[in-house]
């Protein structure tokens, strides 16, 4: 029930449906988000908030000589991540249960930190970034990827679909998160003390000529994510059921052959102090 959710909880829950959605998201966005992230052999990389390992497998596979330490606060998610890594045949990843605000590592342990879709769920992202920076050696890099639900544009347009997206933003706000955080990454990473911060927008666009994206992102990633908070939206009285269901239908409608959908992710890279960055980044 919604009353079981607390501020700071993962707004989308931990159902098998959500696990499948995260997998669809990672595979669909792999080239867009990770094409320019590679870590040198021997590098020590901390992945913060690894969840069920959807991003972990991509990172570890793309940089087989690097050593990854992936942490998450949820033991259930970690078990799924470890199983996913095992099935992928990866031997360069270890998993640890840990809160990003209380990391069990000495200062300067890692050469790089990678954070993806985590800060949006935290009430104080700068505090988390500060803690992650403490685990990073001087001259090391941090990479942060977040979306921004306010960047969603689609055809056919629908006021109810836009309202449904707004409800997800409001639910996440009430749980202490920020679903519009992508536009703030430059400020947040700088406020956490990182230097040389660069942010690149990553646009995803789907139409009838790109059916794989329409299915993988519009339907199975974004619309499924919005639909996944139905229980919370209705319990909070943010929309009436009939209007909500019509808004969700309208979002699915944008994945049809004559529909279009556009969304923006933001990828920030910063350095701890000076030094040479080992990540290949765009």
Name the average pLDDT: 90
Indicate the structural class: alpha/beta
Distance between the termini: 42 Å
Can you tell me the residue ranges where pLDDT is under 50 for at least 5 consecutive residues? 1-8, 275-282
Shape: globular
Helix content: 25-40%
What can be said about the biggest beta sheet? 8 strands, mixed
Draw up the topology in text.
Layout: H1 16-34, E1 44-48, H2 54-62, E2 67-72, H3 75-87, E3 93-97, E4 110-116, H4 125-134, E5 136-147, E6 153-155, H5 159-174, H6 185-191, E7 195-206, H7 211-227, H8 230-236, H9 241-253, E8 260-271
Parallel strand pairs: 1-2, 1-4, 2-3, 4-5
Antiparallel strand pairs: 5-8, 6-8, 7-8
Explain how this protein is built.
Strands 1, 2, 3, 4, 5, 6, 7 and 8 form an eight-stranded mixed β-sheet that branches. The protein is globular, with a radius of gyration of 19 Å. Helix content is 39%, strand content 22%. Helix 1 (16-34) packs parallel to helix 2, helix 1 crosses helix 7 and helix 5 packs across helix 9. Mean pLDDT is 90; it is low at 1-8 and 275-282. The chain has 282 residues and is of the alpha/beta class. It has nine helices and eight strands. It has helices spanning 16-34, 54-62, 75-87, 125-134, 159-174, 185-191, 211-227, 230-236, 241-253; strands spanning 44-48, 67-72, 93-97, 110-116, 136-147, 153-155, 195-206, 260-271. The longest helix is centred in the N-terminal third of the chain and has 19 residues, at 16-34.
